[in-house]
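Reviewers asked in the last cycle whether our approach scales beyond single polypeptides. To address this, we selected a multi-component target totalling 908 residues and predicted its structure end to end. The input consisted of the following lines:
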Amino acid sequence: MKKGNRSFGKILMALMIVFFYLPILYMVIFSFNEGKSLTSFTGFSLRWYKHMLESQDMMEALYTTFGIALLATFVSTIVGTISAIGLSKSKKIIRNLMEQVNNLPMMNPEIVTAIGFMLLFITFKVEKGYVTMLLAHIAFCIPYVMLSVMPKIRSLDPNLADAAMDLGATPWQALTKVIVPEITPGIVSGALIAFTMSVDDFIISYFVTGSGVKNLSIMVYTMSKRVNPSINAISTLVVVIITVALVIINVAPMILAKREKKTEMAKRKIFVPALAAVCIIALVIGIFNIGGKGSSLPYEGQTLYVYNWGEYTGENLIAMFEEQTGATVVMENFDSNEQMYIKVANGEAYDILVPSDYMIQRLMQEDLLQPLDHSRLDCMDNLVEAVVGLPYDTDNSYSIPYFWGTVGIVYDKTKVDVEDLEKEGFNIFLDEKYKGDIYLYDSERDSFMMALKALGYSMNTEDQDEINEAYDWLVQCVETMEPEIVTDEIIDNMAQGRKALGLIYSGDATYVMSENEDMGFYLPEDGTNQWSDAMVIPKNAKNPELAHEFINFVTSYEGAYDNSSYVGYTSANQEVMDELSGEGGDYEGIDAYIPRTDNEKDEVFVYNENTRKIISNLWSKVKIAASNAR
Amino acid sequence: MKKFSQLAIPYIIWAALMLILPMALIAIYSITEPGNSIISFSVTLEHYAKFFTDPDFLLILWRSLLIAVKTTVICLLIGYPVAYFIARSSERAQNILVMCITIPMWINMLVRTYAWIGLLSEGGPIQQLLSLIGLGDVELLYTEGAVLLGMVYNFLPFMILQINTALCKMDHHLLEAAADLGAHPVQTFWKVTFPLSLPGVINGITLVFLPAVSSFFIPKLLGGGQYFLIGNMIENQFITVGEWNFGSAVSMIMAVIMMLLMMLVRKVEKRNSGGKEE
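The resulting structure, written as structure tokens, was:
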């Protein structure tokens, strides 16, 4: 019986280890994959490591993660220990009260704590960024340190400090020479917990960050929509760093034990390896953090904060701009206009935003933008006529176009009958023939656009009944069709032919079609959204001068070509657009690249505060209905 | 001696600012209208009413609690035997095993969750394995099962470590005493070991249940955009919808539910360990 138990335990442990390490191993293996796939290994290569090392964003995320973790651990360990000692000598009522308060971050769902911090920083107008992230991390780490130090203090003889002072020690000496050494194990385990919590944190960091400061978690969260094996590469690097640190912590005491006497060792057992580990990590970070060297470029040392859509910039655009100007670009990405708006409206400072038409209108209405200085701009002649002087900004005094296009249906020619599309238009998303085989796009405006157009209404309707009808249409869709609601995930998934149909932006369709010949793009005759995204400079921009420079660069042939050829969206630069769609161009023969301009039913979004609110609420209810339907 | 008590004063101020004030702000937001300044506001319970009168919202809450309970139960069922086995092995093995379970926690949670996407996706290794036994068509990624797996994977270490700590603290002479007095090993387990490990179990449950109920990136990464839990709903209110007052109300509701549940759990613990020391 006992033997049976043992082997059962061993099998269980083996299974556990496999369970815990399989994903990590899988990640390590695929970080060396030559191809982009996460499922088939096509050959050994280091290209994702190269990609990672070249990506400023990723290295900075690594630096931020460990930098914040080390600082937060350091501060919270010291403050936590001192406060715990202080509290242990305080009145019982204060002690109990503080214990309850400390329970707040530990016993609250993390998202509630996170929102609390966010509201705190916004209410008191603290600019969100590295400092706020650090403060929040310190705040949630201290209670854990105190929790681990407190029991050790309690088990101390309360007269210890008195005895030391009777023997002539100053209070400081009594503290550092008598009390602290006695509770060191508690302090060390507290510091370890703090470090773990900080390195692992996502939710709190996500809500309190700003100014483009990202830690590893935030980076993975924003990047995970597209297949990106460099995430595997950077994860492998983290595994290596952690392993090296652990080996040092565990091996160093053994080596020391051989050399030194036991009493000596007890003291150093913890400090030396911990110190060594910290040094190693700092060193590793330091190596990666050595930046470019200075020269005499016009914007040397200045920083440009850009807030743009995810997957919306060319591969080399930023690097080229930085090389030309000497400035550093910090880019943050958003998923929707609404997400961007909330941050900007709450006073976060960016130099460049790239919102869509109706959002530009809103930002103008609410006086959040500054007029462009056209004497600084040399791009007006390069632009495609169709996107210049649009109704929301007739003389382009606030905005310069970035990309433009339509919203249509991407479909797998081998699975979808074109006749169905022609007959049904957007109503194909209610055709149960394609149940379980469709993607919806997580955009409130364009989902409602689809529904309203399918019903034959204007997408700018303010009629409550029409909007409700569209809501019912969408609910019917999510309840009967089992759609997946995605954002940028649609790009790689459709390129791999995972589903038959999807609502998609024309630019993403261009990319999908250039990757997979079986894919087609269809624009319903009932009309669609003719959109354009443009660069604007918010009122609170810190470096409008550099922002103008950026606008010039993005619209120049060089910048626009890199942008459009990499991303697939239609360039606002006429020359680039012609070249890419023309003979020998990247997108020759792909109809999605040239937006439709000759259908009278196509519309441009107009901003209306009231409808926006209604639609916003209804869309989140559609998503809830989708979730509950499963 | 009294001097030392002054060491706590800075922290009391800090805690008031960084721990109590944020909660107070959420509470204030949850009962006010948008656009009000902090100085002049009118109180409303409209946001709470909006939540409690909408069956869809309540269903989301229910489903979030349900999946958190499922996660906790699975973690307990797997975690207890593992922790028990670790506690019974030699000290050297114990250290190594505990280390093995801790290391993944230092590799970022998002990264670990991301790793599962490849494993679970179409044509991935797990699906290929399943197709060997004729289950090739089973969809793995973007299902509730995937979300559950992701949660168990991320939170199981907390459970194991907490129970293990409790089991290691246990006085082994008690087991010998029980055996000497003629108790069957199974009896010993239920009458001695399990009750003594209960504080660890409770801590483990807390540490698994809390993050499971409010997680929003695991559902998003492994469940897809159409998989919505209460955490996603709160995120959505703050990040894209922009109705912070309603979002705050939902946060408050969640915080209160959690607090009540935790108090309940603590009470059960107290009753079970009643009469014993510590």
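Confidence is low (pLDDT under 50) at residues 262-268, 290-294 of chain A. We regard this as preliminary and will revisit it once experimental data from Aim 1 are available.
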